[in-house]
Amino acid sequence: MKEIDCRGKACPHPVLMTKQALEELVEGEVILIVDNGAACENVERFAKSQGCPVTVEKRGLDFHLRVQKEESGEGHETVSEKKGRGNIVVYLNSRFVGTGDEALGSILMRTFLKTLLELETKPSRLILINSGVWLSSEGSDVLETLKALTEKGVEILSCGTCLDFYGLKEKLKVGVVSNMYTIAQTLHEAERVVRP
Quick check: helix, strand or coil at residue 194? Predict the structure, then answer.
């Protein structure tokens, strides 16, 4: 069984290394070793998105992820397969809508997110990047709206590097910590990207 040591690798390298390992593996198992919780979650989420079951074992400070790849990934819908059934992605790179007065920008963001709840066709994902990650973190005045969106099936991805930069990783309250590979792939495969 192949072991891949991803310790000390910055985002999104552990996910990219996982992707390469799975592409090279026709069928069988691979173990990926990471040294932090965010990388563990990102690798686990990516492997599952490819239809591969994952078991995680914590050993000291490290995480060992055993990824099982079967020859056929039947019964699993990938991001690519979601295309054609309304794969709309909302990209928020700020906690405000527009430029200018921040108080107005904050009001506009609250209104925009509440309006998404009312739309018949909901986005498949919200991507929060740069100061947009404040929206999904403790103290945000739109947390209830974001939680309501997740209950409607909208996946919320917050950039892990951005959360780290603002000191918010432990304060994330809705959605998941994501990585630049997943964010880039999501934007690339979207039928439409909405930026308010």
Answer: strand
Is the CA virtual torsion 98, 102, 107, 110 positive or negative?
Answer: positive
pLDDT in tens, 120-157: 889 999 999 999 999 999 999 999 999 999 999 999 99
Q: Which CATH fold would you assign to the domain 79-194?
A: Hypothetical Protein Ychn; Chain: A, (3.40.1260)
pLDDT digits (tens, 9 = 90+) for 29-46: 999 999 998 889 889 988
**CATH architecture of the domain with range 2-69:** 2-Layer Sandwich (3.30)
Question: CA-to-CA distance for 177 and 74, rounded, in angstroms?
Answer: 27
The amino acid at 31: I
Q: What is the pTM of this model?
A: 0.71
* Residues in Cβ contact with 69 at an 8 Å cutoff, skipping those fewer than 6 apart: 22, 25, 26, 27, 28, 29, 30, 50, 52
Q: Is 162 a catalytic residue?
A: no
Position 85 pLDDT exceeds 60: no
Rounded Cα distance, 145 and 116, in Å: 9
Instruction: Tell me which of 11, 52, 159, 162 is the catalytic residue.
Output: 11
**Interior angle at CA 175, CA 174 and CA 180, nearest 5:** 135
